[in-house]
């Protein structure tokens, strides 16, 4: 049960007379251990139309759970690179899983039945990537775009096509499951929107806008058209003392909610 609370003048929280109660269904537990000890889950994504869930751990274990068949497939990235995974998402057109680390973008073909050569690594990325989110505007069957945020306040827009994973491959190392792709061969737009780390990025399809947040007290939250990443026009930004850690959009109430 989740209740809405209001603040009183003495700093205490009291339950509002107009509080709303939200009921959730009984929780389900995955009994299989997703990761080993001393590792943590950094991203959980539910892909509703394909009925599976993706998890990504800090040390590089990406898992796809089939909700209907209760089965899973797993991909390990940690033995290729020492950088930690910081977020993950799903590419709906290309049907790949994408994750970002401190220095690379990892793309995994989870459908591949081959034990090797089913993963791609896009690098180098100059700054430390902290979050990733898919842009759900493309109706092109062979193209997807993702938003990423880094530790310097930049927000990136990276567009990938099916040709990128065919024509621009580097020769894979022997006995390696990764194919290294040069980031210079990709269409990557970026713009500095914050003066601190980008905590979260997300495309809100209902508003046809993207959002990004930061602990920056001056430029805490940005909500604007994705075309602003291509130009230098002013963006719609909001200031919140001590910044914003997270945000989401409620379509029913037509409000954006932030947490700091």
From TrEMBL:
The keyword rRNA-binding does not apply. Keywords: Repeat. SUPFAM superfamilies: WD40 repeat-like. The keyword Ubl conjugation does not apply. This is WDR64 protein. It comes from Neopipo cinnamomea. The lineage of its organism: Eukaryota, Metazoa, Chordata, Craniata, Vertebrata.
